[in-house]
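Quick one: structure for this chain?
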Amino acid sequence: MRNLLLIAHNLRSCHNVGSLLRTADGLGISKVYLTGYTPYPAIKNDPRLPHVAQKLHKQIQKTALGAEQTVDWTHSEDIDVILAELKSKNFEIIALEQAKNSTQIDRWIPSSHTALVLGRETEGIEREVLMQCDKTIEIPMFGEKESFNVVQAGAMALFYSRFAK
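Got it. Here's what it folds into:
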C-alpha cells in the first residue's frame, strides 16, 4: 500500500482545511501538513492569541467532524523545510495544479511514497513551490468552469493515488 501524505499550502478557508482533514481520515492518508498561512486546529501551547486559536478551531471542527483529532497533522509556516525533509525520505512531491507541463491525472503513476501539494484556493500553488515539486498533475475539466474546489480536487487526486495501479 502507498504511503500518501498531503500538504495544504496557503489555504485561507477553515472549512476547506476541515474538509481536507476529514478526506484524509477517510482515505487513510499518513500525515497532513498545513503550511504557510493555512489555518490549523488549536494545539497545546498554541502561539496564537487564545480567542483566535479557538475561533479557527471551531470553524475547522465544523467540517472536520473530529478528523482534526484522528488524523496525524502538523503545522509549519515554512513549506521549504517540509519539502526538503520529505525529499530526503524519498517522497515524490506532486503538485496538483493546472500548468503547461502538467500531466493528466489518469496518465500519472503514483510512487510508493507520494506527497500531494495543494495550493491557494483561487491563485493555485506559487511558482517557487511548483519548482520544488517533482511532477505536476491536473484533473481535466469537461464543463464550463476552469477548476474544481481545492477540497474536491484534492479528494479526487488522493483517491486516485490510493487506488492507481
